[in-house]
Amino acid sequence: MIESLDLIAGWLQENLLLPLLYSAGLMVWEELSFGWALFAVYGAVQVALTFAVCVPLERWLPVERWADNKAVWVDVLYTVISRVGVLPLITFVLFWQAQTALNGFLTDHGWVPPTLERIFPSLLGQQILTFILYAIILDAVEYWRHWLSHRYRWWWALHALHHAQRQMTFWSDDRNHLLDDIIAFFWFGVVALLIGVPPMQFPLLVLVLRFLESLSHANTRLSFGTIGERVLISPRFHRRHHGLRAAGRYSCNYGAVLPWWDMIFHTADFSPRYLPTGDPSGDEKLANGGYWQQQRAGLRRLWTALMPRARGV
Prior knowledge:
The protein is mostly helical.
């Protein structure tokens, strides 16, 4: 399978990326174009895998059924852009460039670039364990980013687009404002640089974590049981976070993949109810508008949050 993905990535590089780079005068990126293509292919495979797992679950035990799924199709567009288009560019090319620059700077000044293996020598050669530890650390960081996005008015103005969906499905995970995604990438990426995540592991970490996050958004009556839900976030656990009464500053269940941080910081709610989702305080276009309508509505809400006169203060 890996060989097949390599062949597809090679075809994309040769027939799509290299001609585009040449016509744009950006052949300096030629060396990295295969990596970009490869992780775009991985992203497409991840979307297909998520589809294969979540669609049967949503049809078997749906929380809600809707006569009109138009709003869901906008979320599909978000997913394709994020997983197959923008995400591979950001997670491979930009992260690789940033880590190369950082390591070069540190080496030039006589410092050793940080990695978990250097901090804990016993991890040398333990690639799977190290990968898991990187995932746990990044998930903890994601908990705090998510918590802060609810606490600050201006940040919530952007993040509210994610909560506006009243027809939440596994596609809804990627339903984010572009500015919110940029903040999330820098937040996530800076920590990954500081703990020394290898460039080839970073996209894989993102793909694995995002698959689990997509599952947690699925429109399905699925829980992992009393013990399982305290190990991994389930669709039931995360739906509490998207409930109508949870939207805004005071919510619950902020964790992305692991519920541990919610349990430690007393923001966990394990109640069994499946609540309706959405944000009643937002512009209707955030819920039912097209892609660009939602992006513009998010900017208007951000402007209102930042400018006192705009909100009548």
